[in-house]
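testing teh design pipeline on a random one, pls ignore if ur not involved
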C-alpha cells in the first residue's frame, strides 16, 4: 500500500510541476533506474546488511540538509542534516514530510490538539534553506561536500493529506533547480501497481546510530524482514525511522 501511494503521489506531483518529465524521459528512467552501483565494474559485489556501504553503492540515495546563510547570499554553510532521500528522476528527490517542516510549531499544535485544518498544522521550510547532496561517492556527506554533488531546491511539495500529529502520509517531493549528473547519481526504480513485496528488504540511508542514539552521518544499509520493518515503524511512534 505504501509503495502504491508513493507512485500515486509522484504521478500527481509531476503532473503539476512546471518542469515535468516527458513520457520519453519516464520510459528511459525504467531502463536505467535501480542500479546497485553507479560504476558497472563494481556490480558483482553483493550487499550485506548492517554495515557501511562502499563508494558508489546505492547511487540513488541522497542526503537532505538545512543550510544557514553567512553574511550575504550565496555564502552559506551546512546547519543540520535533516534526512535521507531517494532520487526518483533527474530533478526529483523523495523524502519524509516531517523533515521539511518547522517542528516546534507543529509539536505545539499537536500537543494541544488544536482543531485546525491539516494544511495549517505545519509550516514548510523555505526552499532556500534546504540543499540536497546527491549520489553515493562518499559515506560521510559532511566531509565530502562539493559543488559537483550539491543541488539546490526549486520547490518543496508535501503530501496534501500529511498529518504531522499522526505521522500519516509522511512523504514529500523535492524538485531541484537542475538535473543530477549521471556521473553523480542515478534514480531508483518506482514500483508498478502489481508489485510483489520481497520477503527481505533493505533500509539504506543516514539513520539512527544506536551506539550513541544520535543521527548517523554515515550512509549504511541493513537487511529487514517484514516483521522487523513493522516493528521499526511502530517504535517510538515512528520517529526513529524514515521509510
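output:
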Amino acid at each position: 500500500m505504501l509503495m502504491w501511494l508513493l507512485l500515486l503521489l509522484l504521478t500527481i506531483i509531476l503532473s503539476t510541476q512546471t518542469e515535468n518529465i516527458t513520457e520519453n524521459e519516464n520510459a528511459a528512467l525504467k531502463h536505467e533506474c535501480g542500479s546497485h552501483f553507479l560504476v558497472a565494474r563494481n556490480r558483482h559485489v553483493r550487499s550485506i546488511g548492517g554495515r557501511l556501504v562502499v563508494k558508489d553503492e546505492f547511487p540513488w540515495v541522497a542526503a537532505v540538509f538545512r543550510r544557514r546563510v553567512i553574511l550575504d547570499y550565496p555564502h552559506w554553510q551546512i546547519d543540520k542534516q535533516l534526512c535521507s532521500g531517494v532520487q526518483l528522476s533527474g530533478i526529483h528527490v523523495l523524502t519524509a514530510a516531517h523533515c521539511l517542516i518547522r517542528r516546534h510549531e507543529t509539536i505545539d499544535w499537536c500537543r494541544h490538539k488544536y482543531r485546525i485544518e491539516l494544511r495549517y498544522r505545519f509550516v514548510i521550510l523555505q526552499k532556500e534553506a534546504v540543499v540536497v547532496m546527491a549520489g553515493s561517492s562518499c559515506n560521510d556527506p559532511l566531509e565530502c561536500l562539493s559543488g559537483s554533488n550539491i543541488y539546490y531546491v526549486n520547490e518543496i511539495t508535501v503530501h496534501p493529506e500529511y498529518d504531522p500529529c499522526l505521522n500519516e502520509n509522511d512523504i514529500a517531493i523535492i524538485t531541484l533547480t537542475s538535473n543530477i549528473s549521471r556521473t553523480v547519481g542515478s534514480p531508483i526504480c518506482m514500483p508498478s501497481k502489481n508489485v510483489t513485496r520481497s520477503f527481505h528488504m533493505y533500509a539504506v540511508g543516514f539513520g539512527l546510530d544506536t551506539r550513541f542514539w544520535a543521527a548517523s552521518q554515515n550512509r549504511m544499509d541493513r537487511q529487514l524482514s517484514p516483521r522487523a520493518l513493522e516493528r521499526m515503524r511502530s517504535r517510538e511512534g515512528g520517529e526513529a525511522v524514515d521509510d
